Amino acid sequence: MSHPLPDKFIQRINNDSFFDSDFLAHLDSIPPVSVRFHPEKVQSKLEVLKAVSWCENAFYLKERPSFTLDPLFHAGGYYPQEAGSMILDTILMQITLPEDPVILDLCAAPGGKSTLIASFLNGKGMLVSNEVIQQRARILRENIVKWGCTNTLVTCNDPADFSRLPNFFDAIVVDAPCSGEGMFRKDKAARDEWSEENVLQCAARQKRILADVWESLKPGGFLIYSTCTFNACENEENIIWFCEEFGAEEVKLKMPVEIQEGRGGRGHYCFPGINESEGFYVAVLQKPDENFRNSKWNKRPEFRKQKESAGLEEFVRLDDTALYVWNERMLVLPAKMEAEMLHVQSLLRLLKMGTMVGENSRKGLIPSEELAMDFNLLSFQRKTELSRQDALNYLHGDTFDLGEGNGFCLVTFEEQPLGWIKRVNKRFNNLYPKEWRIRMQIN
To answer: In terms of domains, do 58 and 78 share one?
Structure first.
């Protein structure tokens, strides 16, 4: 089925001297495939061409594989992410943040930027990953869990809800919903959904989102604004409006030479054909210090701290952590961030906080998938290494012969945890989450 570029889009590009004469032709070229490897997990043997120069542990692939049929993808060993959006790594390296920064990824689903931020934090500080649409928020939670970091929360809230957290975040990433012009190459159906009216609607919505979340940014904090579109209305003009309306100051950063400066020197673009990426725009704003207003908050009484860790040492390392029991579930939080995490949960709708170790039952602790994925916390020693086919069978939700054994066991592929089983003599119960299971044919 043919999906031609919209006529009014072509006209706009041709009338804008900001674009070179080959720009439209690049939108019909083959898009590159890029992934970002987890720095602490086993790397899949994907065939790479070269590194993405502006992001650590990121590479272009020779071709697009079936990620679904790679067990290490399900284990959180890497994340397929558009290379242009990985410029966030370069930005985070340049802005001045405290030792333990508190960062919000406001429009986070499906999770590419959040997993990048989690790797940047490297166990320090705290990341709140938010998505307002419930179904997308569940996908976000799955990807954050698989990345395996205790210092993360996943919330499902409207941007306006974050006004309950004034002066709370050191940095806020807003990858705003947009008209999606940067999707025209890899998702041809996006061309059919584009209209000039939608561009204007998106620009207005983006202004509302920025205004809603500004109060929750600390004085001196940074707001990183991005879209996957090319027009000035959603990009440079929004930056001008926001600086004039709220007194924000644009931060000038040093970018790789192939990243193009925006119109009037505001923000930067990744363009197909100029660099190996899709369409991506980003600008960094800073909140002036004079906007400071005090805010106080306290721990929530509904949480009950677990005083003893008897029986848990088999499953987890509890150094520098706080252990809580909440609705029969045991959670581990970073000790340095427990007050901040409890404050967030008291005000927002949470899908994940810290790492859930497991649920208490009459027969003891049932370990959770979150624990299996947490490379820093997990200390369980009973493991069963699976072949590739058995690993896919496990991820499909199947059971098969593993010999005799009893009790909980961690199943691994290439020594990388995939999840839990409970062995009962010669059979086992597959505890891999049903909503995560592979649904396609695996044989």
So the answer is: yes
